[in-house]
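Dear colleague,

Thank you for sharing your sequence with our group. We've completed the structure prediction you requested, and as agreed, I am returning the results in plain text so they can be pasted directly into your records. Please verify that the sequence below matches your submission; if there's any discrepancy, let me know and we will rerun it promptly.
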Amino acid sequence: MFFNHISRAKYIIFFPFFLFFFFLPESVAAEEKLIVGVVNNAAPCSDYRQGEYIGSSIDLWKEIATETEIPYEFELIESEAEAIQRSQYGDIDIGLSCVNIISSRLEQSDTALNPEFSVPYKEDGLAFLSKKKEFGLTLVLKKMFTNKILQRSVTLLFGFSLLSATALWFKNKGFNHRDVVSKNKFHTFFKGWMMLTMGNGLEELGEGFITTSIVAFSNIINLIIVSIFVGTSAAVVFEQDTISEGSDIDLIVTKINQGIVIEKDSISEVWLNRKIGSLIIKDTDKEIIKVKGNEELLRNLRNGKVSNILAGRERVDYLLSQIPVTERSNYYIDADMKNSTPQAILFGFNLPSYFHKDINDVILQMRFNGKIDKILTKSRIN
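Please find the predicted C-alpha cells below.
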C-alpha cells in the first residue's frame, strides 16, 4: 500500500512537468515574432522618422500581417544591399523597401544562398531628376570657351589663314600694298594675316592668277569654318532643357557628362553599369557618384556637384517633392527609361515555407481586388 501511494505521488508530481515540456514550447512558438527589416532613408518606400516606421512597403506589410495574423517586430536596416545580405543568412525574416527582382540577385555567385522574394506586388521604372541649366553671360561664355567644336573652329580659322598668308608672302615676296605695309616686316605680315582671317581688304594682298586663287580658296574655307562656328555658338547659347527623346545610349552619355549621383548597390547602379559597359566616353571629367540615402542624393544635386539623380520613378517623384517650393522650378523629371522591374517583399532564408504561401496568397488576392493600388496611392499622397 505504501508503495502504491508513492507511485501515485510520482505521477502527481511529474504530471505538471509533462504538460510544461509538451505544451509550453508550442505556445512559445506561437508567440514568436518575425523580424522584419526596414530599409532606412528610402522614402517613399521605407523610412524611420520620429520613432515611427513609414512608407508604402510598411503600409502594405501591415495589411498583410493583419490578414495573416503574423506577429512581428521591426528592425532598422541601413541599405537595401544590407537587407538582402541579412536575409540570405537568416538574420531577418522579412525585408521591406522597394526591393527589385533582377537576374543578378537571383544568380549571385559569391554566396550559396540566393535571396528569395514574394510574388511581385508592383513594378517601377527608372527616371532622372535633373537640374535645369542656368543662364547668364558668364555661363554662356564658359560654355562657348569649353565647347570642343568652337575650339577647333577657331583653331582652323586662324591656322588656315596663317597658311594662306605664308603662301602669299613667299609668292609675292611680301605684302607691298601701301595699306598693308607697316614699319617692319612682322607687322606687315601680321596685318596681311588678319585681313585674310577677317576677309577684309583681300584685293590689297596682291595680284595675278595664283594670288587671286589662294585668296579666293582661303576665303571659301574661312566662310565654311565661320558658318560652323556661328551655328554651334547659336546652339550653345539657345540650348534648352527638354525631355529626352533620343536613345538610351545618347541620353546616358549626355547625363554622365553633366554628372550623375545614384544610390550605392541599387537597381540604378546595376542598370547604369550594364548600359555603359560597352561605351567609350571621352572628354569628360565627371564621375558617377554613389551615395546612401535620399539626403545625400539631394545634397549632391542641389549643391551643383552633379546635374542628375538616377533612381526609381516613384522615388524621383518623392525627391522632387522634398526640394523647397522656392527652388522646385529649377528641377524637372527627365526621361522615363524604357525599363520596368518587379518589386517584392524579401524573404529570409530561415522563414518557414508556410509563411511564404500565406504572404503570397494575400498579395495575389490584394492585387486582384485592387487593394494594393489603394494602399500605394494613399502612401504617395501621405
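Summary note from our side: The chain has three domains: 33-123+342-381, 129-133+244-334, 138-237.

Kind regards,
the structure core
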